[in-house]
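step=encode ok
step=design start
structure_in=
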């Protein structure tokens, strides 16, 4: 048990999972703050109608961790019905051992997952286009907003505090030690340990502690279509479809018969004074959800490739979902060097952090407490040497967001 005064900035998957696991370990003084006045934050990447939950990774570390996370998600006494085991169908470019999908397939086999290569027609799902890939029946998707609400209730039940409407504007430093945070309303919150779990806002909110070029914010493009009740029933039991070749992915309809699709890519930058800064519905209420017109077309093409019968439906909404992307797609978890273990990074989800919500904080708490293995600590270290790039991005160079090229209502028809 420790009464170390801990202040976590950010109430997304990293912040909440960290708080939960510290509290479970007997930490008695844990507070989360978030700039959003209502939580879950309306513009946070962790708050959405769904997120893929999969073990299918080319990196065995994440594959095994994903299996552990799914085992936790399945416990409805802990996570309600936030997790839906629909299966995930991974479109593959072939059986080459250099292919990301094939490496993932082999890792799933090693883990004992229920997987098999097949044509989509073998799924007895006539509305899916004839695609080749593999189905993992032990994977699925989670209602992201619901999961965050569940974990917030767990945190408060264990004595943790969650304070909305507290925007951190400045880290307070005494010598080489961070001693707290000053908020935009003038409030000063003292702490022995400050954890920056601020996601895509990390660089723009705290430029003084930027960690080189290790991570930056990127906007990822999302669109949705509305199905009728009859259509929803027809597609309800389809799996998540993930195309490792194009980055396109699409979910089965949720309870409101909304089908969401997106592209996992290098995304878009919104540079403000040289730092990519999220542009969301909170900062730009009029068009903060709009995506570039060119991306509308790409999403339409992806929809046509997977579900031809839905391809002419109007998009009812779009969103630029902001990630904090690391260069190598590994998370950034560790103490900032030279700050006497008073400043800790828990960020850079890189578009694949949410699925680990139930257990991610265990890994983070181990590193905070110095209980992690050297291998794991080095993998996520703030000052690590970059040895590879993210191989899941179909385009490795993000583009600058051009406001004049954002879509309008007519582009969604």
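sequence_out=
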């Amino acid at each position: 048990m420790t009464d170390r005064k801990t202040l976590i900035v950010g109430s997304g998957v990293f912040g909440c999972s960290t708080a939960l696991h510290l509290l479970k370990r007997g930490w008695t003084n844990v507070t989360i703050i978030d700039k959003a006045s209502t939580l879950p934050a309306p513009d946070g990447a962790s708050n959405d109608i769904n997120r893929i939950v999969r073990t299918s990774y080319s990196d065995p570390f994440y594959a095994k961790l994903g299996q552990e996370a799914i085992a936790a998600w399945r416990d409805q006494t802990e996570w309600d019905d936030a997790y839906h085991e629909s299966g995930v169908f991974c479109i593959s470019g072939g059986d080459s051992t250099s292919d990301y999908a094939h490496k993932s397939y082999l890792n799933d086999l090693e883990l004992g997952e229920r997987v098999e290569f097949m044509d989509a027609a073998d799924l007895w799902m006539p509305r899916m286009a004839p695609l080749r890939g593999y189905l993992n029946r032990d994977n699925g998707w989670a209602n992201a907003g619901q999961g965050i609400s569940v974990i917030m209730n767990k945190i408060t039940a264990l004595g943790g505090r969650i304070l909305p409407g507290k925007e951190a504007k400045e880290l307070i430093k005494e010598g080489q030690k961070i001693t707290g945070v000053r908020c935009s309303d003038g409030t000063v919150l003292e702490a022995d340990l400050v954890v920056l779990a601020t996601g895509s806002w990390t660089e723009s909110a705290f430029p003084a502690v930027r960690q080189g070029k290790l991570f930056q914010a990127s906007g990822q493009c999302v669109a949705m279509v509305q199905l009728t009740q009859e259509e929803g029933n027809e597609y309800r039991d389809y799996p998540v479809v993930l195309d490792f070749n194009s980055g396109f992915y699409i979910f089965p309809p949720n309870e409101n018969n909304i089908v969401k699709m997106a592209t996992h890519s290098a995304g878009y930058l919104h540079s403000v004074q040289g730092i990519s800064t999220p542009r969301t519905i909170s900062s730009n209420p009029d068009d903060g959800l709009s995506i570039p017109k060119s991306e509308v077309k790409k999403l339409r093409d992806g929809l046509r490739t997977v579900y031809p019968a839905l391809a002419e439906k109007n998009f009812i909404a779009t969103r630029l979902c902001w990630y904090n992307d690391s260069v190598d797609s590994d998370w950034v978890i560790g103490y900032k060097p030279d700050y006497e273990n008073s400043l800790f990074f828990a960020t850079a989800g890189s578009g694949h952090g949410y699925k680990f919500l139930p257990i991610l904080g265990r890994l983070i708490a181990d590193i905070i407490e110095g209980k992690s293995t050297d291998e794991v600590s080095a993998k996520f270290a703030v000052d690590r040497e970059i040895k590879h790039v993210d191989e899941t991005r179909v385009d490795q160079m993000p583009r600058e967001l051009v406001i004049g090229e954002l879509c309008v209502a007519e582009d969604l028809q």
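step=design ok
step=annotate ok -> The longest strand covers residues 215-226.
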